[in-house]
Write a structure and sequence with these properties.
By secondary structure, the protein is of the alpha+beta class. It is built from four helices and seven strands, in the order αββββαββαβα.
């Protein structure tokens, strides 16, 4: 870790690798528990690998409808005002999905293993695949600040799930109230 927390956050986020995504996407009509296995090398201890396990609870996506009618535009050109007027006229057709998550610490554990990173990765991935857990993920990240990797996992799963969630909400009539 450096003496610059902003750099440490950026560095941690840039080093996250999703090694195994859950085989199922986030649930559309309920919460989802994603069981993570975060693997990281201990920086000052060659041949030592930490495996953290826990779960993220992804909340059911909420549908948000923008309220363009409440927006006033001062100092904008005519084209921007016309575009805002278009959005106001069509706001009933616009929806945004909001996802939330909660880091659960009740099932959190960690262990330090003396082995190569590659061997630990192979072993953890094999165990997760053999478990048949449809909502398990294996990720690799830095050891500190390690929890940045969990936010990146959550962001990845939201991006992966959004298309299916939108389709299911639309098919059910809940997205546009059909």
């Amino acid at each position: 870790m450096s003496h610059d927390p902003a750099f440490d956050r950026w560095y941690a986020a840039s080093k996250v690798r999703i090694l195994l995504s859950p085989s199922h996407t986030l649930e559309t009509f309920g919460s989802t528990l994603v069981n993570y296995h975060l693997i990281s090398e201990l920086e000052d201890y060659p041949g030592k690998v930490r495996v953290r396990e826990g779960r993220l609870e992804a909340h059911q996506p909420r549908i948000i409808t923008p309220r363009f009618g409440e927006i006033t535009a001062e100092g904008f050109g005519e084209e921007a005002k016309q575009y805002l007027e278009f959005l106001k006229e069509n706001e009933s057709n616009l929806r945004i999905l909001q996802y939330g998550y909660h880091l659960k610490s009740d099932n959190f554990s960690e262990q330090i293993i003396t082995d190569s990173l590659a061997a630990v990765v192979d072993r953890v991935k094999s165990e997760v695949v053999a478990s048949g857990d449809k909502f398990a993920a294996v990720i690799h990240g830095v050891d500190e600040p390690w929890d940045i990797a969990l936010i990146e996992l959550w962001r990845h799963e939201v991006e992966r799930s959004a298309g299916k969630n939108i389709k299911e909400l639309n098919d059910s009539g809940k997205l546009f109230g059909v």
